[in-house]
Amino acid sequence: MNISIVGTGRAGSSFFTALARAGHRVQLVHHDEIDDLGPSDLVLLCVPDGALEETAARLTPRATQVVAHCAGSLTLDVLGAHPRVASLHPLATLPSPERGAQRLVGATYCVAGDALVGEVVRSLRGRTITLGDDQRTLYHATAAVAANHLVALMGHVSRLADAAGLRFEDFVPLARMALEDAAEMGPARALTGPASRGDMATIDAHLGAMAESERATYVAMANAALALAEQRHEASLA
């Protein structure tokens, strides 16, 4: 398949490497070079969400060409009047082109529109999910929490570890264990620690020991843990 990718950031570069390794003929161009695109079966727009509509409008509509985006929260409407449109959003983190390319193989993709993108996903040995337009924003919010907010929480861990004179790396195995437990047992059953047993004295002691700048994050997560513990308790009574 002839594929042109517009956007040379982490997403575009990751797709370029993964799709080339899968045997496609792939062209990668910066969004300012869109006029240099050759004939393509698929043009994949990997540009910022706010630039999608303008970038799509600069492409000449062709009946033999699919124009697609990889934005998780946007519908196909942003692609304008192109006769064949689609989207494919990978549930994968793409922190660098090489690591991203590896993760795109076998990933789960949220797809919409033209069936050609399904062929692309199959070439990457991925699986597909489909959503209604009314589901997309909450789907993308869920993905942001699962990846971005988890990394932000690890930033909280790193700062607390530094303040205690310890290393962030000392706590990474613990985080991995907890995530594995949540995946295998479900979040409610996997919950441990003071919030899981309603130990407010320990939670208050934690707050007193940490910098004021870290307390809001801790309180938000402790409240979420308390709610999860209550959910588990209610389920046990049902």
SSE blueprint:
Elements: E1 2-6, H1 10-21, E2 25-29, E3 42-45, H2 52-57, E4 66-69, E5 85-90, H3 97-104, E6 108-113, H4 116-123, E7 127-129, H5 136-163, H6 172-185, H7 187-190, H8 200-209, H9 212-237
Parallel strand pairs: 1-2, 1-3, 3-4, 4-5, 6-7
Antiparallel strand pairs: 5-6
Separate helix tally: 9
Radius of gyration, taken over Cα atoms and rounded to an integer in Å: 22 Å
What is the count of β-strands? 7
Strand content bin: 5-15%
Tell me, rounded to a whole number, the average pLDDT.
Answer: 95
Question: Could you characterize what this model shows?
Answer:
With 238 residues, this protein is an alpha/beta fold. It has two domains: 2-130, NAD(P)-binding Rossmann-like Domain (Rossmann fold); 136-237, N-(1-d-carboxylethyl)-l-norvaline Dehydrogenase, domain 2, CATH 1.10.1040. The protein has helices at 10-21, 52-57, 97-104, 116-123, 136-163, 172-185, 187-190, 200-209, 212-237, and strands at 2-6, 25-29, 42-45, 66-69, 85-90, 108-113, 127-129. A seven-stranded mixed β-sheet has the order 2-1-3-4-5-6-7. Helix 4 links the parallel strand 6 (108-113) and strand 7. The protein is elongated, with a radius of gyration of 22 Å.
